[in-house]
Amino acid sequence: MGYGPHRFFWKAIWKLDTLPKIRVFTWRVGHEILPTNCKIATIRQGFDKGCPRCGAETETLLHALKDCPTSRAVLSIRGWSRIFISKNYDRCIDWLEDLMRVLDKRAMDDLMTTLWNCWNNRNNYILRGKKEEAKQIWERASNLNREFRICNMMNEPLLSQNIVVKRWKKPPKDVIKINFDATVGENSTGYGMVIRDEDGFVLGGGGGFKEGRRSVEQAECMAFEESIKLACSLNIKDHVLFETDHVGLVNRLNNSANDITTIGARIKDCTAAFNFFKSASLIWTERSCNTVAHLVCKKMYSEAKNCLFGMDYPSEIHDAVISDVS
Ligand SMILES: [Zn+2]
Predict the structure, then answer these.
(1) Tell me, which fold does domain 175-325 have in CATH?
(2) pTM higher than 0.90
């Protein structure tokens, strides 16, 4: 969990304009979880780890997608051969990450679609003994992308209606924003939070469910405390902006010096915990700017569960995450 050395890669695939199944494929490539013979041989004893197509000794994922002659032929049709052959890698993710630094987004969309077709070609070959010509694979890949683009263009007007609803704002450069929210029921509370960087990229989040009666203010305070805890546990030490749509909490924090209530004491503890960060503050925003946190919160509340997530957040919030940044 958290963001590791391949943050660049995960962030780039999140921005890919491909069909969802190709984004999923890219995610699997990044995690090396596709069933190559090499992979199967580590699980099943006596399984031949060689490449079924060219007879190479070991069929790693890199081999299947990049080095196997058929794949290489497909890639070279697009004139990518020079970048492809020049360097050896241990893992697919290193190779793709390198490429992402040279190719623009559109070229990357095409590349991933092509690789996806290479992978399908490999499977067809194994399962059905069907051998496709390199040119055919490439043509299929480019048709797929073209269709998707046309479909996307037709959808565009639907998104650009003239309704002005205030939306979540990206934090300034080098600042992490943490939105949180709480839902209060008769005898239970749900809370949710989401951590995003200056691009609106989700670094993590989560939420929970707690039994017991609470006021809205107590619940919001709890969500605030949990957000600080989560940021600390992810070791986010940057400049941090906490954001809530509960104005009472922000007011209390600003007047906490004179506040002798229990909540006042808890808020003082929160501001003391701010020392963990380079800088931190709590700001207020409108409800329509806090939708992702609200959705996480609602999910926790309705499912009565606790969960933390990293960059692969629950699918329910995906649309809201995207609409916040578009
Ligand atoms: Zn091969």
Answers:
(1) Nucleotidyltransferase; domain 5 (3.30.420)
(2) no
